[in-house]
Amino acid sequence: MESQKIISFIRETFKQKEGFIPLHVPYFRGNEKKYVLDTIDSTFVSSVGAYVTRFEEMMKNITGAKYAIATVNGTTALHLALILAGVKNGTEVITQPLTFVATANAIVHAGGMPVFVDVDIDTLGLSPTALRQFLLEHTERDENGKCINKTSKRRIAACVPMHTFGFPAKIAEIAEICNEYGIPLVEDAAESLGSYTNGRHTGTFGLLGTFSFNGNKTVTCGGGGVIVTNDDSIGHKAKHISTTAKVQHSWEFYHDDIGYNYRLPNLNAALACAQLEELNHILTNKKELAALYKGFFRDSAIKFVDEPQATSANFWLNTIVFPDHESQQDFLRESNGHQVMTRPIWKLMSSLPMYQYCEKDSLTNSKWLEERVVNIPSSVRPKSK
Ligand SMILES: *Cc1c(COP(=O)(O)O)cnc(C)c1O
Predict the structure, then answer these.
(1) Which pLDDT score, from 0 to 100, does residue 1 have?
(2) CB under 8 Å to 273, separation ≥6 — which residues?
(3) Among 98, 191, 195, 218, which residue has the most ligand 1 atoms within 8 Å of its CB, making it the best to mutate?
(4) What average pLDDT does the chain have?
(5) Measured between alpha carbons, how far is 55 from 39 in angstroms, rounded to an integer?
(6) Which of 216, 264, 297, 311 has the fewest Cβ atoms nearer than 10 Å?
(7) Which domains does the chain have, with CATH numbers?
């Protein structure tokens, strides 16, 4: 199928004959202004305020997690989650090479070294088969039952799968393997708010999960992140260290740990609450768009990425897979040249200068996808209601 046909279909679908069509923009039609103005009128714009608590309550309801802790962005949420899982200097963390750079950065911020293991072609997320094979071939247990990399002698302190573009990875299988090997599972669910596997929300299959509310995500609060967990001790500690580890007292300053100033301001939380009120509406709207794309690509050599089996995806970014690298590049050139914004999937983390020396497996599927995957415009299409 020639690029021009796809571009015309995108323009038709967004009812925009000319001008720029972005990849993904925020959608505000509810209480956003009202709640943000409320924080200004009340002077509670900073890290103390009712909207932060309300946002956390809403995230508990949506994900079903026992604890939800709001932070300033998804990167800091992941950074803290990794520390709480036990990542420190001299440990390793298994993740996928096909992810946004923040995943690998947060691992290093926590003191860990990323180890890149391949993804599955159908989910675009960490492959349980590749994970099992890596662990079988490269790790052993020490006297305390900890999983140790046989070559580097470092402890594997966590495994961080990522639900790419909102498509759930094979998370139940990954959780089972992590359990078997005694490796804490931390899900980078930054892109998968509203995505489920067997009715269970992504981010809640392991010890910890993290979300992002950056401007380009499914819903946004300018910048924001959330940590979720069902573990009581970790839940309390997450809140404590994200708020400078200050011990509650009416007037005294006493801090009992090296804390972080990662608490989300009330100003952002207000926007988050208004956005989450619209979440179901947004998800439905995005599913309708995905269904249109799916129909369009049905008989094409270009494959539309659909929800993996037994999952419900949020279709944050609609995704197509070209038959080869040349057709991917042609389409990127044509579409962006005609003001229809499209983007290739990320360059593999293992090819970036700061991560090129990290341990990795063959990454066969990751390399295959890197050459073929493109995201196409996926914003909510406003409707009169
Ligand atoms: C967006 C994103 C993050 C980081 O979120 P920020 O809020 O931008 O810090 C982390 N991981 C993945 C996979 C993301 O897409």
Answers:
(1) 65
(2) 31, 35, 51, 54, 55, 58
(3) 191
(4) 97
(5) 14
(6) 216
(7) 2-26+278-384 (3.90.1150.10), 32-277 (3.40.640.10)
